């Protein structure tokens, strides 16, 4: 039937499916083995939600299925593009993907420790920072004791690398 013959109140809104964490154009989707486990676990959870959807209202059920299937499609793309990097294969003397880095901001002597992870695994509360974050990009390739310039807004801040662990 043509959409012209459908009552206005019968038209369903297209559900909005939240996007995944941003990955810059052309960037390889690096993940840790733990990050890949998280992605696969998320896929299992979504598949279970789809299988066990218990909404009785047909309109609401179609909407929920559309959202869950959209999330699953985005997740499948992310899993397909994921490249697991073996942290043990990284150079131990410089900052690379998977490293846990302790550094000090020289302006305020504040010491921080972060782990460099994939975009889907990043979690600021757990101090897991995506490899594409500006501070990580500035640190990558540097060694313990290096003082680096980190551009933050309009100012340049000095950071000293205190410790690198894998």
Automatic annotation (TrEMBL):
GO BP terms in the entry: DNA-templated transcription elongation; regulation of DNA-templated transcription elongation
Annotated Transcription elongation factor GreA/GreB C-terminal domain residues: 91-166
Listed Pfam families: GreA_GreB (PF01272)
Keywords assigned by UniProt, alphabetized: Coiled coil, Elongation factor, Protein biosynthesis
Coiled-coil portions: 36-63
InterPro entries, A to Z: GreA/GreB_C_sf, Tscrpt_elong_fac_GreA/B_C, Tscrpt_elong_fac_GreA/B_fam
Domain of life: Bacteria
Protein name: Transcription elongation factor GreA
Organism expressing this protein natively: Aequorivita ciconiae
GO molecular function: DNA binding; RNA polymerase binding; translation elongation factor activity
């Amino acid at each position: 039937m043509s959409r012209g013959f459908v009552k206005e109140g019968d038209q369903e809104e297209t559900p909005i499916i939240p996007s995944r964490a941003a990955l810059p154009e052309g960037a390889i989707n690096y993940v840790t083995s733990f990050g890949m486990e998280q992605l696969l676990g998320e896929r299992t959870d979504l598949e279970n939600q789809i299988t066990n959807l218990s909404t009785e209202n047909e309109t609401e059920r179609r909407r929920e299925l559309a959202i869950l299937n959209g999330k699953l499609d985005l997740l499948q793309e992310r899993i397909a593009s994921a490249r697991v990097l073996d942290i043990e294969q990284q150079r131990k003397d410089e900052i690379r993907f998977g490293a846990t880095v302790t550094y000090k901001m020289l302006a305020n002597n504040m010491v921080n420790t972060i782990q460099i992870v994939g975009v889907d695994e990043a979690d600021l509360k757990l101090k897991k920072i995506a490899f594409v974050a500006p501070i990580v990009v500035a640190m990558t390739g540097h060694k313990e004791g290096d003082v680096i310039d980190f551009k933050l807004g309009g100012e340049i801040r000095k950071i000293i690398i205190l410790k690198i662990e894998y």
